[in-house]
Structure formats: structure tokens, C-alpha cells
Amino acid sequence: MKIDTYINLIEKELLPQIHLSTNSPFDPIIVNNRSKSWKTIGSGNYAGVFSHDSHPERVVKVYGRSPEELKKEIEVYKTLGNHGSYSRLIEYGETYLVLKKLKGVTLFDAVVNGIQIPRSVIEDIDQGLEYARSVGLNPYDVHGKNVVMFEGRGYIVDVSDFYKEGYCRKWDDLKKAYNKIYKPFLYKYHPTIPFFLVDLIRKGYRLYRRLKK
């Protein structure tokens, strides 16, 4: 499908049929999708993500708040260029980005579902973050819900905060937990872990970090 036809699908069949809202600035966007042809595949702090069967190798990220952040994310993708650790910017509109789809399961979901996370995934993410630094970006807000793994490789699916300044310790803290808790105690006989428990740990960590500041 030509990109012009795809853009027409976005603007005629997707955007009028979705409503994006939030209960709290610290919670992900809530997606209400009434479209019959577009599937919701996820949501983050700023946006919902959607796919269409006619082009499964693409996703559309629609911003639901902070539209100025969209312009910054566009610049981040342009700076990253075409690198194996990241998605690629294909096109963009006033409220959305068209991106190459990255296959895989998030590290968060892998823990919940008892899927082993090999060390190669952690190493891939480290290499991807080092590349981002080498081109002048600052990897920020990298955590288990915006990192995916597929066939033993790791990929970073959300770069929207890579323009920010300062040190974000989320990835370093996740690696410490991987090395000290996950690898020695969970990896070999990986049990499933209830979603509510993993989500409680995630929210507790975020609260702890906010209070520490």
C-alpha cells in the first residue's frame, strides 16, 4: 500500500474513531477505539498505538496529550536514523507518527508470563543506548514496558523522552534487579507472576523515585 493511501486510512478511518484520555499525569493514556479496521496495540504516557491489517509492518502512534512532545520525538527519530535497536520514522502528521513495527514482547510482560529474558537482550539494549548517546541523545525513561525482545534480541520501542536532560536511572536499576534477583532466582525455572504483583512493584518503584527527589 502506498503511503498516501495509508495516510488517508489514518485520517479518515482512525483519527475520527478514537478518543484518548487519562486519569492521571502519571498513568498511561486510556484508549477508546471505535474503529472496525484499526486495532489498538498499546498505550504510553503520551499516546496510543494502532495497527491496520493492510500494513502489519507499520504502526501509528497518536498523541493524546502534550502535542509539543510529538515534534521532539520526530527530531529524536531523525537523529537516530536507521539503527537496528530502534523503530524507524516513516511519515508523520499533525498528531501522529507512522513507525516501523517492532515485533516482540515487553520485558514487563515476559516477567508476568514466565518467559525467560536472556542476557543477550540486556546487552542489545545497552548497545542501543550507547549508540543514542554517540549521536547526541540522552536515553531517558527506558524501562521494562518500553523495551521488547524477539528471538533473543532486544529493541527499544519508545524514544519520546530521549531529548530530555539529566540522568534517568530506570534502566540501570532494572539491570541491577536483573543481575541480583532475576538471573539467580527466576531465570532458570521462570514461574508466571501475577500481573497485579508486577504492576504493584512498578508503581511502588515510581513512587519511591518521586519521593527520593
Name the features.
21% strand; alpha+beta; 6 helices; Transferase(Phosphotransferase), domain 1; 213 residues; Phosphorylase Kinase, domain 1; single chain; 39% helix
Overview in brief:
By secondary structure, this protein is an alpha+beta fold. The protein is built from six helices and ten strands; from the N terminus they run αβββββαβββααββαα.
How would you describe the overall organization of this protein?
The protein is α+β, with helices and mostly antiparallel strands and 213 residues long. The chain has 2 domains: 98 residues, Phosphorylase Kinase, domain 1 (2-Layer Sandwich), CATH 3.30.200.20; 108 residues, Transferase(Phosphotransferase), domain 1 (Orthogonal Bundle). It is 39% helix and 21% strand. Strands 3-4-5-7-6 form a 5-stranded antiparallel β-sheet.
CATH secondary-structure class of the largest domain: Mainly Alpha
Question: Main β-sheet, in a few words?
Answer: 5 strands, antiparallel
Quaternary organisation of the protein chains: single chain
Write down the overall mean pLDDT: 93
- The proportion of residues in beta strands is 15-25%
**Second rung of CATH, namely the architecture of the largest domain:** Orthogonal Bundle
How many DSSP E strands? 10
Q: Give me the side-by-side strand order of the main sheet.
A: 3-4-5-7-6
Radius of gyration: 17 Å
Specify the structural class. Answer: alpha+beta
Low-pLDDT runs: none
SSE succession: HEEEEEHEEEHHEEHH
Q: Number of folding domains?
A: 2
What would the CATH topology of the largest domain be? Transferase(Phosphotransferase), domain 1
Distance between the termini: 48 Å
- What is the global morphology? globular
Instruction: Figure out the total of helices.
Output: 6
